[in-house]
Write a structure and sequence with these properties.
Blueprint lengths: L4 H19 L3 H14 L9 H15 L3 H13 L6 H13 L3 H15 L8 H10 L9 H6 L4 H18 L7 H14 L9 H15 L3 H11 L14 H12 L3 H15 L9 H10 L3
Helix pairs in contact: 1-2, 2-3, 3-4, 4-5, 5-6, 10-11, 11-12, 12-13, 13-14
Length: about 300
């Protein structure tokens, strides 16, 4: 859909003023200009081409102010509007998740941006590319793999799954990242909503990580192992993900917590081999780096 020339000129003028304010590091003023331009869009606002770049501009301004939660909210709006393969949106989401210390989602979205656009998208983002390189073997990540895999599904199904994922993230984080019992309840409810086979849904990856980590933090190790064993059946390749040993690492942790040392050792070896040792850079890494040394790994 196209805006009238008069309305487009008004929006363009405000946007240019916003860009000028960004160049002058006056981010609050930039947000004001972008917001005014956004308000000029007729309803439903999501139908207009200008919607994405205005919302993304507001998100970018909040990012520069280091208000990462607000920035993420705006980029999630873009993502939910259908920009599920836009590398810039995925990059910004990944950067925000990183700054919010949600490293699982940071890796997810930064890697997806890399798969679509390659290293060039990180030209001015060396901090994030460096972190991603330390946690994923990018030499084995095929550019565009995610996009090619998802093409097997209809655009409608992909959008529905991504909408469900964003809804889940919003709801599960409603009481903070440490509300483990609440996260478990929400995650199980979403798991029950999935059609069979449940592990064929992309959202199941996030549900597994939430459930396993929450049970580990609550020291309910048998339940953590239950979900880790199911997680092991998740097909990374079919979902367009690179198997960096993440599954093996979590299965190993859960076996170790349940006293199954031989099984834990087996999976730790696999995780270390697949990740080239990078599995020890993330959550639980420091603890199990020492434990693996004790196990002779």
């Amino acid at each position: 859909m196209e805006l009238s020339d008069k309305l487009y000129s008004q929006i363009e003028k405000l946007s240019n003023q916003g860009n000028q304010a960004m160049d002058n590091d006056d981010y609050l003023k930039a947000i004001s200009y972008f917001q005014q331009a956004y308000e000029l869009l007729p309803s439903p606002k999501e139908d207009w081409d200008a919607y994405v770049w205005l919302v993304a501009s507001i998100g970018d301004a909040y990012f520069m102010m280091q208000d990462y939660k607000s920035s993420l909210d705006y980029f999630c709006q873009c993502y939910k509007s259908g920009e599920i393969e836009n590398p810039f949106i995925m990059l910004q989401m990944g950067e925000n998740y990183f700054e919010l210390q949600d490293y699982d989602n940071a890796k997810e979205f930064l890697l997806r941006a890399f798969m679509v656009e390659g290293k060039s998208i990180f030209k001015n983002e060396k901090k994030y590319f460096g972190w991603l390189s330390e946690n994923v073997d990018l030499t084995k990540s095929k550019r565009g793999q995610k996009k090619q895999t998802r093409s097997c599904k209809s655009d409608t199904n992909v959008k529905e799954e991504n909408d469900l994922l964003m809804q889940y993230i919003d709801e599960s984080m409603a009481h903070g990242a440490n509300a483990y019992q609440y996260i478990i309840e929400v995650s199980k409810r979403y798991w029950d909503m999935l059609s069979e086979p449940k592990i064929a849904h992309s959202i199941s990856y996030h549900l597994f990580l939430s459930l396993i980590n929450s049970y580990l933090f609550l020291e309910e190790y048998e339940k953590a192992l239950h979900w880790a064993i199911i997680f092991e059946t998740f097909d990374f390749e079919a979902d367009g993900r690179y198997d960096s040993g993440e599954k093996d690492f979590y299965v190993a942790i859960c076996y170790h917590k349940n006293g199954c040392i031989d099984k834990a050792r087996e999976y730790f070896i696999n995780a270390k081999k697949k990740s080239r040792g990078r599995c020890f850079n993330g959550k639980w890494g420091e603890i199990y780096k020492d434990i693996c040394k004790e196990l002779g790994i």
